C-alpha cells in the first residue's frame, strides 16, 4: 500500500492522479467512507461511501476501521475513514491511497510496516504558498483566510518531529512534476518487483 502525503499545494493530488493513470503500475484505489452529508455533484461509492454515525460506531466497536479522522463542524462531528470492507486484498493487488501523516500511521499499524510505503511529496514553502495563492485566486469566492489557516496548520501537522516519528526518510521534491512522478514511479516499480520476488 503506497500512501501519498504532503502539505497543501505541494502537488500531492496531481501526483496521486498521475500514478493512478499509469497502467503499468496497475495500482488499485480505495473508496473511503464519511458520515458527512452527500454534496451536490457527488455519487455514493465514487468520492466516498456515505454512511451514518451509527454505522461508523458499529464498525469502530468491531475494529473494522483501518484509519479514521474526525472533524468538528457547526453541523456536528463528521468522520472520514477507511474500512476493512474487503476493498483491500494484498494477495491480489497493490494499492495507492492519499492521506495525512496520522492516517499513514494508522494504516501502517493495521497492516504492518513492511506492507505500507510512504510517498512524501515536498515543495519549498514559498513556492507552495505561491501555488496555493494562484489556485485560490481562481475561485469564485476566494477564501484567503482559510488558505492561511491551512498553511499554518500544515506547519504543525507536518513538523519535522512528526515526520521523524512516522519513520519517513525519503522525500520527493516536486519542483518539476515530471521528474517527481518519474522518480516515484521508479521506486514503486522496484517495491512491486521485490514483493513478487518474496512471494516466489
Count the beta strands.
Answer: 9
Number of helices: 7
- Poorly predicted tracts of residues: none
Helix content: 40-55%
Q: N- to C-terminal separation? A: 19 Å
User: How much beta, percentage-wise?
Assistant: 15-25%
Q: What is the approximate shape?
A: globular
Radius of gyration: 18 Å
H/E order of the elements?
A: EHEEEHEEEHEHHHEH
Sheet/helix structural class: alpha/beta
Mean pLDDT: 93
Major sheet characteristics = 5 strands, parallel
Please state how the strands of the largest beta sheet are arranged side by side: 2-7-1-8-9
Describe the structure.
The protein is of the alpha/beta class. Helix content is 43%, strand content 20%. A hairpin with a 2-residue loop joins β5 and β6 (76-83). Strands 2-7-1-8-9 form a five-stranded parallel β-sheet, with helices on both faces. Strands 4-3-6-5 form a four-stranded mixed β-sheet.
